[in-house]
Design a protein that fits this description.
Elements: H1 4-18, E1 20-23, E2 30-33, E3 39-42, E4 48-52, E5 63-66, E6 72-76, E7 81-85, E8 91-94, E9 104-106, E10 112-116, E11 121-128, E12 132-140, E13 147-152, E14 158-162, E15 175-179, E16 185-190, E17 202-204, E18 210-214, E19 219-223, E20 229-230
């Protein structure tokens, strides 16, 4: 684990131009997507390798999540599709439509959850062998304005990066909200963001520290499990 700080440094540098990341909680692999529609993988040695470049849509592959087998999944809001990448980099577009899907996250049982910005909600998705991932009807619209991404902690709580929508809205904006595994609202984790600082992607490490990227500031924020902000 001596190389872990180097990986995080690479992640912070990548966020300066990419603005979104995915930390694989089952290993120390970091995935970053860029506005050039590419996904880069960083291993524990800090060396990056591009695994996909032929992506399109609103800001590219917005949601990134890794299942227990090491397969990578990305969402595309403009097409409402989810793409799966095998460990060897083979891509396949899953058939189901998930409206405006952005953030993706797997729980410990490999259930896939997504943020749906157009409906200001987070959803647990249902998998169909014929149609791919679909909305399952288990969702929450409370305390969210424009949810971009989500992540699970080791207690199975869901953290959601809640941002300002690109249209007039009066409600909860630019915060990190917490929900239980059954998508019941728990509390606000952090409001240390204003209308100029947009929380975008979330990652939670094993000790429970929460990392939040901000494309508006090209910055990475770190909170401990109690919501205290540390300089990073």
């Amino acid at each position: 684990m001596k190389t872990r700080p180097k990986v995080i440094l690479q992640l912070a540098q990548a966020i300066a131009v990419s603005a979104l990341c995915c930390l694989n909680g089952r290993s120390d692999t970091v995935y970053v997507w860029g506005y050039d529609a590419a996904i880069t993988r960083f291993e524990t040695n800090g060396i990056g390798s591009i695994i996909a470049t032929d992506l399109s849509g609103w800001n590219g592959p917005v949601g990134l999540a890794v299942d227990s087998k090491g397969n990578l999944y990305s969402g595309c809001p403009s097409t409402s599709r989810i793409t799966k990448y095998t460990t060897t980099g083979v891509a396949s577009i899953l058939g189901g439509l998930v409206d405006s899907v952005s953030g993706l996250a797997f729980d410990a049982a490999d259930n896939l959850f997504a943020t749906i910005p157009n409906y200001s909600e987070i959803d647990r998705l249902r998998y169909s062998p014929d149609l791919g991932y679909l909305l399952a009807g288990n969702y929450s619209q409370s305390h969210l304005s424009y949810p971009i991404s989500l992540a699970f902690d080791k207690a199975a709580n869901i953290y959601v990066a809640n941002s300002t929508p690109p249209f007039p809205f009066s409600g909860y904006t630019n915060s990190v909200e917490m929900f239980s595994s059954n998508i019941a609202y728990l509390r606000t984790f952090s409001t240390l963001f204003n209308h100029l600082v947009t929380p975008w992607c979330l990652a939670i490490d094993k000790p429970g520290n929460v990392y939040v990227s901000s494309p508006t500031h090209h910055a990475l924020f770190r909170f401990n499990s109690d919501g205290v902000l540390f300089t990073f």
